[in-house]
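Structure tokens please, single chain.
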Amino acid sequence: MKLCIIFPPLPFGWTPVAPPILEYLAALTRREDPTIEIELISASATPEAIDKIQCDLASISILTPTAVPGYRIADALRTRGIKVVFGGIHASSMPEEAKSHGDAVVIGEAESAWPQVLRDFRAGQLKPFYRGEQLPLNDLPTPLYGKLGGGHQFRVINTSRGCPYNCTFCSVKPFFGASIRFRPIEDVVRDVCAIPEKMYINGDENIWWEGFEQRAIDLFTALKGSKKKWMGFGSLRPVLSPSGSRMLNAARESGMLTAWVGWDAMTDEGLKAYGANGKIGVDRERAVRTLKDHGIDVSLFYMLGAREDSIDDFKRSVELCDRLGVSMHPSLVVPYPGTELARQYEPYLYKELGWEYYTGAFALFEHPDPAMTADVREEKFHQTFLELLSLKRVWLHMLRIPLAGFPYAHLISLMSQLPIRKGVKIAFEKWKASHKAVSEKRSR
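Here you go.
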């Protein structure tokens, strides 16, 4: 039996980050049945591999922006008699839709469901739906690092699942649950040491949780021995907690170079509308400066164009970038299926725009301000992103990165921002050429 595990192409092309589901699901498969032949395909890195697939069973993990190309791949494989199983956050949110393009759908987490999928397939009794349980994260296998080709330079480690916050835009809590489940620290260290590269990404929703600062300190202390550099996603509230300084020192000593921070909205009113003020804290600018004071570079991720936002927010984000000396990564608001935001925005959605437009570069809903038309929001987004990625700002940001991160943090800053700049320029030109057709879709 041969299994092909596929991650569909990303909307903006290849990135050097290996999709973590590929090598991890391969490890779950190897644990269940070592005789199964496994092929991994990241379609952004090796698009030519899709047409050459020869297997008995294909597993396709889809996010909302990759759902449409994932369905196309599945439809083509099924015409050749290959069975297809879908998984991932989008398939879990829209299982009936996914089932219309596949033979089976795994809803939720894979660990409890995937072995049964493989057994049922071998027996010729594949069921239409499998529901994974939210189990303790003990005894998870180490991903089969190195099995995925395509020149990926960064592997992703996960140390916890779940989120207690109620941000309306986020899929993490609906998918992984409200309780934080931690992996044993020794298992995390084992997986980090198994990564062949010298740098990795902590892919957790949050690398430090309020009330669990000591857990973070213990994890970072244990990771210090790996002598590897890493980046991760962190909320701001724990940074200013009584244990914040010790935690940041431990993170830096463990090799942390960059904190990717959810800034989410440009105004306090916007944060409240998202329900995100709980994780942000009371003084987010001071928290960012505190991170930098501890030798950790900062990149802020945030959204523009929400129904509560104004046109001034685009300009405010550029001013914030210059004031704090950070890199900024905006997107237009995306009401992902299964989220509270999707429920709130449902009456205002442009129904003719399919999942292929849910990339963060398109206006997906009506705005109450007549000045914030869809075309205006999209054009302002591209212009703002390019302004944030001007060569002058890219170089100035690199010069303001803490010297404690030299040279790795400085190289990573260039490696991430310059390719993104190129991609945004290409996307803007494509938008100029196609926005009239998209506008016609909205008006139907």
